[in-house]
Amino acid sequence: MMWMKPLGRSGIEISAIVMGTWQAGKTMWAGIEDGEIDRAMRAAYDAGITTFDTATVYGNGHSERMLGKALHDVRDRVVIATKVFAHSLAYDKVFQACHKSLKDLNTDYIDLYQIHWPAGAFGSKKVPVEETLSALGKLREEGKIRAIGVSNFSRAQLEAASQYARIDSMQPPYSLFWRQVETDAMPYCLEKEISVLAYSPMAQGILTDKFGADPAFEKGDHRAKNKLFQPEHYERVQAALKQLRPIAESKGITPGQLALAWIISRPGTCAIAGARNSDQAVQNAEAGDIVLTESELSEMEIISRSVTDYLDDDPVQWKW
């Protein structure tokens, strides 16, 4: 039975495993097929996932349109989270972006609307966070959105944003092999009851243990630039995966499910897990009620540090 968790102080309940739909946008991915994605979204819902995360920048609305189509008949039973990108954070542009997302999602409200990257990211204009949150607060008053979240914010940026609106979620990269958020924004999130929605909880597939010693990516697949796949880290990653295998095997679960179970064992934290087909979606959902023992968690902590102790403090996963 899928665990449910509160979304900050919003009164909204979300599934411990959230389906991520970056792949559905196709941009920066390879080998993605619309029909498979549509079936994966329905399979995720049927397997107990009630919460779906997307963004307008995922294929310029393609992911949102896929999601809106796949879940239209169960809209009142799911929680939809989407994001406004860094180049649309000026007051009027927030409204324009939100209305586009509402149309693409084929809905009249968004459950969780998130700032995707802070203003200034990717060469965008440095709009004061007060201006953006003023627009988001107005959208919440109008009932167009139900809760406000942020993504890829540092603790300092999150604290600044919290002065102007109630923030209910923070979305950082977070996995057994990528843990910078624990020493930055996470303590503040726990103190203020802000949910942590971990993206890349399987380290972009590394923790599924399927890549082998020499990972190869199709042209256009952004994962080739993930720092963990680079030679200076990948050998340690492989050694750590070898140590994790017996834990997964002893519990009769996959390495990917073990990685998701570790994330949702963290206080106030849910895992955003992507899937490119129905089988992956169902496997992810099945991790939603796995309980890890204290002994298993302690062992995984040691294994994790054999990778993370060699990373720098930069929370961005990719060498763009």
Q: What's a quick, concise take on this entry?
A:
It is built from 10 helices and 10 strands.
CATH class: Alpha Beta
Strand segment tally: 10
Could you state the oligomeric state of the chains shown? single chain
CATH topology: TIM Barrel
State the major sheet: 8 strands, parallel, barrel
**Mind telling me the C-alpha Rg?**
18 Å
Number of domains: 1
Secondary structure tally, helices: 10
Distance between the termini: 39 Å
Name the CATH superfamily classification. Answer: NADP-dependent oxidoreductase domain
Q: What is the helix/strand order?
A: EEEHEHEHEHEHEHEHHEHH
Which class do the helix and strand fractions yield? alpha/beta
Q: Could you estimate the helical fraction of the residues in percent? A: 25-40%
Strand content: 5-15%
Uncertain runs with pLDDT below 50, 5 residues or more? none
Question: How are the strands of the largest sheet arranged?
Answer: 3-4-5-6-7-8-9-10
